[in-house]
Amino acid sequence: MTAAVLLTAAVQADEAAPLPRLKVDAVRVAVAGLSSGAYMATQAQLAYPEVFRGAALVAGGPYGCANGQLNAALGSCMKGVPPPDVDALVKRTEQRASSGELGSLDALSSSHVYLLHGRADKVVAPAVAEAGAAFYRKLRDGVPGLKGMQVVDDGQRGFGHNLPVAAGGDDCGKSESPYLGHCGFDAAGAIFAQLYGPAPRAATAAKGQLRTFDQDALRPGGADAFLADTGYVYLPPDCLAGKPCGLLVALHGCKQNAEAVGEAFVRDAGFNRWADAYDVAVLYPQTRASFAPLNPQACWDWWGYSGTNYDTRQGVQLRWLMAAVRAIEK
Description:
Blueprint: H1 2-11, E1 24-34, H2 36-47, E2 54-58, H3 70-74, H4 86-99, E3 112-118, H5 126-142, E4 150-157, E5 163-165, E6 180-182, H6 187-196, E7 209-214, E8 230-235, H7 237-240, E9 245-251, H8 258-261, H9 264-268, H10 271-278, E10 280-284, E11 290-291, E12 294-295, H11 316-328
Parallel strand pairs: 1-2, 1-9, 2-3, 3-4, 5-6, 9-10
Antiparallel strand pairs: 7-8, 8-10, 11-12
């Protein structure tokens, strides 16, 4: 009875609370995302490579693919028609880094990049995800000093447009709410292993605290970042006890925000139990759907609905992400 009460208390959300302050290990800060979250994750890593030492991209494409154009996002960057011009995107990335719109690419020298995508994905074509892998390889091989960047392309698994989870089922090849495919493959575990190395201990049921926090309090300069009022953060027991912790920013996909799927992504994607094993807090920011600007599926901005500088250090959602990371660091 006592254990049950404690468990209930451990996962109870604190409405509109600020983010807790943790002893964050700066070399263990990374970002991961699915679909629009994957595009946002690569934007975050390239805008702030000195902060995000690793990135895991599930069903996403190359940085800068849409170039501020919704028609390009829907065509080249999802269907692969025409194919993304990877060489041009790499060149533009180098130019933007040189101008200060992105961070210094030198900071990617020891980063880890994991690209996961399914052969049965009918939303983001496998060829687009392969272009994302080619982008990172060309960046690594073409920019002096980046030979140490690790790029892993995991694209031969037979799942659809979803984040695979360890349990089995009949939805692995589909793209349906809440976009967690029961594939018998633990994508969250693979992401942690790629970003943080071998697990220091076995992952069991999550025993930490899942809390809500006030996202509006982090608006950069008061600007609307087109996010929900409330986000989530998962805190492993050792992080709560004051030990040094890593931090993973986990970005949901379109139609996968809490308003659309409840707490399915923040509880059931598999990240929390691995967070306990690795001592890594997990930040789950939440978008919101809107018609002005046009974003009815609550996607992260990877084509420009939040402004022309959306994929640079001046992008309002990227500045919000940095404010959130800084807020949680003690």
